[in-house]
Amino acid sequence: xxxxxxxxxxxxxxxxxxxxxxxxxxxxxxxxxxxxxxxxxxxxxxxxxxxxxxxxxxxxxxxxxxxxxxxxxxxxxxxxxxxxxxxxxxxxxxxxxxxxxxxxxxxxxxxxxxxxxxxxxxxxxxxxxxxxxxxxxxxxxxxxxxxxxxxxxxxxxxxxxxxxxxxxxxxxxxxxxxxxxxxxxxxxxxxxxxxxxxxxxxxxxxxxxxxxxxxxxxxxxxxxxxxxxxxxxxxxxxxxxxxxxxxxxxxxxxxxxxxxxxxxxxxxxxxxxxxxxxxxxxxxxxxxxxxxxxxxxxxxxxxxxxxxxxxxxxxxxxxxxxxxxxxxxxxxxxxxxxxxxxxxxxxxxxxxxxxxxxxxxxxxxxxxxxxxxxxxxxxxxxxxxxxxxxxxxxxxxxxxxxxxxxxxxxxxxxxxxxxxxxxxxxxxxxxxxxxxxxxxxxxxxxxxxxxxxxxxxxxxxxxxxxxxxxxxxxxxxxxxxxxxxxxxxxxxxxxxxxxxxxxxxxxxxxxxxxxxxxxxxxxxxxxxxxxxxxxxxxxxxxxx
Length: 544
Hints:
Strand 17 (451-455), helix 16 and strand 18 (483-487) form a beta-alpha-beta unit. This protein has 19 helices and 20 strands. The chain has helices at residues 68-75, 124-135, 141-154, 161-164, 173-186, 203-218, 230-236, 254-259, 264-270, 330-338, 364-369, 387-399, 403-416, 421-424, 433-445, 463-480, 491-497, 515-521, 525-531, and strands spanning 30-38, 43-52, 57-61, 84-91, 94-95, 107-110, 191-195, 222-226, 239-244, 247-253, 286-299, 302-315, 319-324, 344-350, 353-354, 370-373, 451-455, 483-487, 500-505, 508-514. Helix content is 34%, strand content 24%. 46% of the residues are buried. The protein has two domains: 1-106 and 227-271, Rossmann fold, CATH 3.40.50; 287-531, 3-Layer(aba) Sandwich (Rossmann fold). The chain has a six-stranded mixed β-sheet, sandwiched between helices. With 544 residues, the chain is of the alpha/beta class.
């Protein structure tokens, strides 16, 4: 039986984890006091207090599992089975509990996968008109149409009839995100919670998200940003709250926290990653090559070109980073190399041997030679089987290992990727994001690959966890002489791993070269926009 409560408690004495007098500011739109969330055996959130005024942006940062999402769910008044809440939440003077959530439309929530917040089988326009009708029951259809059009224009979405007749799955991720924000604007939300809005997005899209959040704050909407993206936090946040193991360990104005972090955990989150060790000098013998590769997606009865005459080569033991804006063809290229995208022409070769276009026609030794590590590590595992069993499976299927040999391989690889043996006996839902990424790497290594394809492998991870994964990946590449192809929007990932960079735009290679040259001295405008650090994001603004 679920037991959730929200018990008002006396104001606690000031604590170092709050922003001084702001912790219970009388003019705050949102007041959170001593919020705690517990299960039968652990504390998820431990006495967190903060406040937020209208038109301000609060960035909540912390390592994976620090309590960010649990705090956000409490603000929404969500019922989470097995979780007990204590403390108090007040929004616009009204208490928020699981029994008394915010009034419909008061709080907008933009999830990490925005499509999950949209009705999958209702047209965009029908939902927008329904929200407008609920807000103004007496308004004419024409008036509602003008309101809907004005709201779409505010979030830079088309207003024509063709767009309104689309379904959510026909939109890009960025468009889905802006549509969720449009829903919140139509419903006159006073608070918007954005959960990792730039995960897996390129630098140009990230800038657009920053501009959108800034625009909302200027319109008087309070924004809570849950993010590992420090570039975004620096660009938009007024205030920062740092969570560690469920507790607020530091908070204050963004300029102060970013410039002089006091708590050790904050310092770790904000620390500049150490420089990558110098590459070992060795002859560049090409292992993986792509020649005149073109690929298409089937869109209804038509084919839409997504890659055109792509050529590239990667030497054994080297790392190639493929970068580009969202929709440029990066993942399609990776899937073609792995044999997961059959609609293509051209040639993919490994050690001079041409590979079949689709993995169904590749023999086991070729399947094992190229392994794919997906962005969503959790979704790539069977939720009902222990992780250790899944790690050993490629050894059985692709290397004819016996069950005992596969189990031994799995145990060895667990040690190699730094994952505790007892942890891997659990099912995937009991592992953290960082643990699952390590398990995914171990599973990919079980077939003895020569090429590892990592598609946004560290997206959505906090800086500490991400650095651990990148260091591990670089060590594996060096020790096992792996050729690595990295698909990433993250400059830090590219800088840490890549020897060579290829830039895609609309399915065409527009720039390529040594990593150091493109990271620091690129001439192509797209390369500069995607990979060069903007000095303007080095400090946080006092007001968005």
